[in-house]
Batch of 3 targets.
Target 1
Amino acid sequence: MRSPRPGLPVLLGIALLVAMALGQSGEIRQRGSAGLGEGMPPREAALARGFVLGEDEGIDEKTEEGFRRAGLSHLLAVSGQNVTLLALLAMPLLGALGIPLRERLVWVLALIAVYVPVAGAGPSIQRAGVMGALGLLATLSGRRTSRLYALALAALVTLAIDPAIAGEVGWQLSFAAVLGILLLASPLRERLLAALGRGRWRRALAEGVAMTVAATLATAPLIAFHFETVSTTTLVANVLALPAVAPAMWLGMCSAALAQLPGVPLAPLNGLEALLLAYVAQVADWCAAPEWAELEVHLSGAGLVVAYLGLGVAALACWRWPRAAAALAAVGLACWLPLPWPGGAVAEPPLRGLQVEVLDVGQGDAILFQPAGAPAVLVDGGPPGDGLARKLSEVGVDRLGAAIVTHDQSDHVGGIEDLLGSFPVDRLLFARLRRGLLARAAAVGAGPQRIAAGSELRVGGLRLQVLWPPPELLGAPMPGADPNQLALVIEARWRDFSMLLTADAEAEAVLLEPGPVDVLKVAHHGSDDVGLGSLLERVRPRLAVISVGRDNPYGHPTPGTLAALRSHGVPTLRTDELGDIRIEVGPHSMRLDR
């Protein structure tokens, strides 16, 4: 007997609740984040927030590195797995309340609509939300639907919402993983069941392992192409972590949901989840420990095509001849081990990790970071009227995830002021900014946000951490104070690459202890700085760059600054001599692109 269709009052009530929840998605996320930390050790609390909400800011670098090397980084970002587990958790709970099937499906659809923005609305969760909604709508209409059709429709819908999302690595990996599961998981599961025998627990094991192997093989070529690195232990790590992942997700979702109710004790629930998360972290440690756990790979566009052709042939063989599934692992390994693919391992392959450009904007600063698969970030914009929008377009940037103003002087903020209203800027970050510019940024939707020492911005794998000035110095300026010494000093990190951006804050007045860095942006266009020698001894840069205008009237860079750099053996590049300076960064490598 078919379940009755939900009545109009029920639908209207659900729609009203969803609208109210969407209006408070930020508050829901904040309460859920706080609830996930109650009664947990710090590491497990940070992992819980990453698993359930995609908040990885609190995860320490060692843990994050271990997950990456073990091929478990996908667990730290919300994805289609979260939506699936949400539906699997909600359906029986709603059924226990006596809610009919069709009404349950509507409630799950509403939960997905709320969960996607609460979880950050990233590319993978958008795709998963659209696919889940399509599947539920097909079920509600009483029609069977093709999963491949739903995947294609999800692609069209997400592209219609934001065409630029196709360039996001997360979006590409998400679709590759789902496509791999749809094409490869079924024959792999049948082969495993033939070996394991039938039975409920055997079927569950075979299903989980097959989906894990299929998704891993389908995404490996893309990972090699974009990040030039692959984890050799990812299959083992994902299979070992498999029994704990779903329970940890379910417990975290329950905890985040109960956190919306005041006074509910969450420590018992979180304590159990912490044990599961500690196990997953231990698996990551085990599988990340060998030196060979991560290999560097150079895969070109032609190599990527060949890799997926190989996987396609293997998938066809598995569907047509199930016994051929056992050979799939060998084909998959060949797709991502460092073999000489056609057009792949060639001299000077593109690194495709992080691109840093010190733009030639004359007597001013403008440094552009382009992390693979994430929006670009601009630190300062040089003086006004220098055609910054054109420069950004020339290097392939049509949107800024963030623009950072180190201090409110025209040779740093002028170009960014020109951009506002004519070029997409998601966020404007600053320490101090005049009210008129602040109001203008808010008016054009640039999301102004004040930052100081201790603040951190994450965009993809790029981290920008503010080292100076401390918040207490950013109040009312002291009479006669040098505004340059209140400029934001930022350390940029991508994997094991680091760059120190000193803006106009000379080392003689600003004490910094960031440790060794790869690149130093010399302060204040190379002006005299009696503290530079001491700074060079502390940070030991492999390269220094000076952003300075040709034939400027200030005599920058000064002979004393150049002499200090030479005496410490630091190679130095200058925009007045070379124009734009481009640095390409890959896993464990850095090179100049002339």
Target 2
Amino acid sequence: MRRVPVVIVLCLMLIFRISAQAPTQTLTTEISGKVIDASTKEPLQYVNIKLVGSLKSSQTDPKGEFLIRTIDRVDSISFSFIGYRTRTIAIKRGKSQHLSIEMGSEELKLTEITVKAGKHQKRVIDTTANYVYHQVVVNKPLNRSENVNTYKYDSYEKFQISLLNPKEKLINFFLFKPFKFVFKNTDTTEEGSVFIPGILKETLAQVYYRKNPRQTKKIVKAEMISGIDNVSIGNMANYQFAETNAYENVFVIATHSFVSPFSPAGRNTYFYYLTDTMKLDGRISYKLHFVGKVKEDLALKGYAWIDSATWAIRSIVFRPNEKANFNFVNDYTIKQDYTLVNDKYWFMKREQLTTVGSLFKKKTATALLITKVYNRKNIEADIEFPDSLRGPEEKILLDSARDRTRTWWDSLRFEPLTKQEKEVYHISDTIHLVRAWKTYEWFGRFFTAAYADAGPISVGRLLNLVSYNNVEGWRVRFGFETNVRFQHLGTPANNFLHKFYFTGYAAYGLGDKKLQYYADTRLSLPRKNDRWQSLEIMYRYDLRVPGQDEDQTLLTFDNIVTLISGTVLNKIMREREFRVSYEKEWFKDFSSIATVNQKTYYDIPGTFNFSKIEHGVVTHVPNFTVTEFMLDNRYSYNDQYFANAFFRYFQTSKYPVFMLRYTGGVVDIQNNYTNYHNLLLTIKQRISSPAGHTIYNFRAGKIFGQAPYTACYLTQGNLGVLLDKFNYNLMSEFEYITDQYVSLWVEHHFDGFFLNKIPGINKLKLREVVFIKTLYGTFSQKNADVLMVPTSLTAPSKYPYAEAGFGIENIAYLFRVDFMWRVTYRNSSGAPNFGVKFAIAPGF
């Protein structure tokens, strides 16, 4: 099946924002209105609304308002709420009507109950609703599915991205006229909004679980995705919209931390209301509503049905507060239903997630509609865990999983596709045949990656075309890379381009009249179970910033954007480098990179003059060579990354990431040889909490043996006006060097925890962040003797170097401003003691 690049599909969807009226569907009977307390005239929220003689039901929102539509033959509507008399009102069939409902209260006695917790603690539960909440929290360990010894189930997942509320002006816009057939494939939501189904991903699997020793196995029997030839995009979609565990204390939604309504600290964030009692499947259950106390806080609202015998959640519906400090998300609703297995275990049998993303809050605005359905059946508990499934692999992808026919899918789906969803697969097969498609692909690539596609070759990047530095003066650069989008899979040319990648550039300095160049090739190796495996060979002769990790640097020295900062780099080395790297993901969450490289460093008079002391005499060293073997290991539970055919980019998760690098090096300085061993440990993590989230990064490194200062730890600074999250922001260029060090960076994002509570300010949806970066290390004389160290380089050995500050995020939804101070080593090396940095940091 032919594929369509996801970037183009998403770009097209985001372009669909042109003002006009959305087509609507008029339902037979429509009732709207407001429900208030008859005596206080205050609005009543979460009142149960039911159309008599129909299965259609709804509830009032926090303002007491409601809207319900149906095509059923009904003539009355009922309003019920615990503590109030039920009201039934006659309605006109087939008409739109507005009702104002007043509900009178009836006596309801809520008993105060004291619950003892241990010998010395007492907890006073002041309402029945809080008592039910407390019982759910107390019984969480018993009701989690992870508490079951073993289980298995069959699962079906369906993930879809659609265009919601398409406008007539958009549909008739001249750029989209070639794709009229796409816009004709429309469907309608339950609320009557029109949408156009887009990307569709389906997965059929069987899941096994064992508690001790803990192990989960997911056997993927079938997987199909429309419009995308990139497996990792589907994997990332599963991760970003992963199944929510209702018993967790914190939910992470679109990178933000929400206190769970059934967290032990839930009463600090939520009000609880008991609104109904009913027999469900012969078991008495309570309907418990929850709503955030502060409307602008990152809190949820919704309800859960609680089983009275086990205090387990049997169904739950929730979404963020409408006024929560949350960008570009108009709706994020999760519905979960649970079933009782073996008369003692509650398992989630279905979850449905609905997300509406838009630049505007207006409900009728054109938006992206994302839906995901998890469906489970054949759930069995206390089963024998198969011996054949023991081992480190959590996911087993059957060889035929991605080759299933559509007839096969139609016979085994848990839920049939709609006519419109089936059409999505046909559209994805044919859309690239439209002549305009390749034109839009070209412009999309040009404006997002600064590359211009020219058949099988892409020319660029334009951001590196012109730059300036103190060695070359003005520098011009011309580069290229192979274009995996040249043709669609199945053709010999593109089959080759999906296995082999080539890139390179040539650069010329108008000042020093020297030519620099770079060439790199990558080979995509077979990837069983989607486990990453690749080979890289690289050769380069160019200028480099000493100690700079190019993969962790916002802007390299030859980027045209660096000219904006007004600073010119004056510490650049000329290097000749040859490198061979092999990368393999051994099993899920653990991978390694083995690298052999050789670097030759050349001195640049007036910038870097290499020399050493022999028998008390200073000797000039025009060049020297370092040969290294490196082994990088990375482990993180449930590690996630986005990848194309040749590169992968890891995503931050709630689990810590452990990285250990070993480097063994041999140094040749004028035929005098030394060797060294380098160990570098990195631990980083994102931790969610009720007051935002914390990101920390801890590093510790030590060099054994003798290494030149170019192979030691050269700490990077940043004196530009742009915030650099990968380096120190108040440190001078080439200020600190160490051969053993520890560093700790901590950044806490409050996500508006305090500003949300300030009247007036909370309307701006600003967010607070505080941070500190520290470094402590030493530099030994034995390494200083290998090669003379520039006098500007010192080690922060007396006490740690530290810089700290605070920032304001989400300014106009896009910008961040940080105010920072050098806490230690002030007034040294010409670095400022105070700085203001700016960043473009859009986010949810």
Target 3
Amino acid sequence: MNETQAQLVERLRKKHAEGLLLWELENGFEMSPKQSALVFETAKGILLEHHQMERGRVQVVGIELGQSAGKRMDDAKKKEVVVTVDGGVEDLEYLGRHGRKDLRRMQLLRMIDEGIDQGVVFSEEDLAHLLRTSTRTVKREVHFLRQEGCEVQTRGYYEGIGRAISHKRVIVEYYLRGMTFADIENRSRHTPQAIKRYVETFARVAYVLAHRHVKPQERSYILGITPSLLKEYETLYRRALSKYPAKLKELEERYTGYPNPLPYKEIDRRKEGFHGALRGKKSRQGRAHARP
């Protein structure tokens, strides 16, 4: 990136809402740049995991996973999900390091990941609409990424292999294999901040599984991730116990030292998500008492 491009990215960064937040932390709260960045990344990681950061995110309708590619669009089951079209400062930093084409490729993979994580697989037309570009451009980018070894799961491709492949799980396994964040960024085309979030989320899952702090039916809710991603991370954890024990132990030891390893200090079992489990438990107890 030349000096002119660097100056442009820095101006855009300062004008962006997230740049204003960093400015406020440094000037309004008199934090150092390092402290401001740490507070910002911690808050952003939590908000993004729980789908609460609305700026730069849009609601979009897609075809649910499992719907046949040959089914008419009118007959296919659809679902509304939320995806990130503008990652703010994170995207601007990626733009500065890699350029506009790679930024678009990263955004494309991110939206595919977010859709699959919420139970939807996008077509190339859907992605073109979200990226505000042509379907031909998306097809070209998808072809390029697949040539580079990336699993780009558009609707037709997903239906062909019959299963969803989470980039998050792949990225965490790269980390467990000993790859650096820089190497993972180049190979997966995800931002360092996203990679860090995926690893930390996996660390929370590993913490819960190792210490049995949360009941199985409550894990997805308490950890703030979808059941499908939780299942993938649980599978990876069991794999890591035998294949990457040293790296897993290192991750668990580092994460156990956090002041609050889980997102919440208390579990409210009356909240949405536990009603079914509690009713099932009560009904089983009732049947047990009714037996002679």
